[in-house]
Amino acid sequence: xxxxxxxxxxxxxxxxxxxxxxxxxxxxxxxxxxxxxxxxxxxxxxxxxxxxxxxxxxxxxxxxxxxxxxxxxxxxxxxxxxxxxxxxxxxxxxxxxxxxxxxxxxxxxxxxxxxxxxxxxxxxxxxxxxxxxxxxxxxxxxxxxxxxxxxxxxxxxxxxxxxxxxxxxxxxxxxxxxxxxxxxxxxxxxxxxxxxxxx
Length: 199
Fold this sequence. Notes:
Elements: H1 15-29, H2 36-43, H3 47-50, H4 57-80, H5 88-105, H6 107-115, H7 121-146, H8 156-168, H9 170-173, H10 182-195
Helix pairs in contact: 1-2, 1-4, 1-6, 4-5, 4-6, 4-7, 5-6, 5-7, 5-8, 5-10, 7-8
Keywords: DNA-binding, Transcription, Transcription regulation
InterPro entries: Homeodomain-like_sf, HTH-type_TetR-like_transc_reg, HTH_TetR, KstR2_TetR_C, Tet_transcr_reg_TetR-rel_C_sf
Protein name: TetR/AcrR family transcriptional regulator
């Protein structure tokens, strides 16, 4: 009986695997500090072979930032669209919890989003989208103040930045698969943000 020898050749990767590895490298080395050659080496491919998987490094960055922003935008849309159910306070609290869920589910992409500085058109577009979300969230805070659910002595845009600054800080210490369940984490962030720590 003849023994079959495994064929050697270029490893095959789907688009998702290439994107995941690229995001890992961008977070580890910085986007500007990562070359297409680095991504190819990470995947065990030649530099020319990587172009069979992706058109450019910038394309990978765009996909990663869209992944993070699309999830956040969907949560904000649900909370701020005319006719949304619940009071502004309830919708604001819910969008904070949903944002924690998005961050946990897409932590590497959100981490990358929080590190962009506007050094390219792709980064500038991501920053523009983030500002639009911030504006809409500040409007939701303003609605909650107007309905009497939130204190009125702190500017709504500052409240929004503080709330989502707390959510964004999770990228610094949260570890996927850790001891804290994502739903419990979302409820805890919401409880601290809206009810404080006083007994």
